D-alanyl-D-alanine dipeptidase (Magnetospirillum fulvum), 189 residues
Amino acid sequence: MSSLVSISPTAFNIELALAYATADNFTGCPVYRPDAECWLHADAAPLLTRAAALAHPLGLRLRIRDAFRPTEAQWALWSICPDPEFLADPHQGSTHSMGVAVDVELVDITTGQPLDMGTGFDAFTPQSHHARLDLAPEAQRHRAILLGLMIAAGWDFYRHEWWHYQMHDARTLYPLLSDTVLGDRRMMP
């Protein structure tokens, strides 16, 4: 039995837009099945709940772009873009493949529109790094808000990707998980 829990919009007061279940990602094609569900390790789920609760009074909602990513998916992404600055080398494993990482953006609750973060999700460029001074002030402010919410909720951040957050000490505490861990394949056949 897996230690992963389903992350639904209703239960977690978030939005889901899993990038790898569509062609709207850096690969240009779906990696997950179109009906793929969102999953996180049971230890990470309360941190997501806390981050969503902190965002709500600010008129914001979290939009999850990726969470649990099977090791097979990590290999598929790496085969297209073997860049360790933006993708974990699957030989070492990704915290996504442990179920303890989320890729997230902020959405305005009133308009339903994502906030300007200076780059899109999965923009593999130095502009995606935290603490960029060459972005519009509004994008810098939005990144600072997201960073503050996630850190206050107990997440750690990855300095090269404004969208990526993971649990502290994840690599020493959690195993890598396969596409078969849920009993139903998540990836495209």
Notes: The mean pLDDT is 95. The longest strand covers residues 101-108. The two ends are 23 Å apart (CA to CA). Residues 4-173 form a domain with the Muramoyl-pentapeptide Carboxypeptidase; domain 2 fold (CATH 3.30.1380.10).
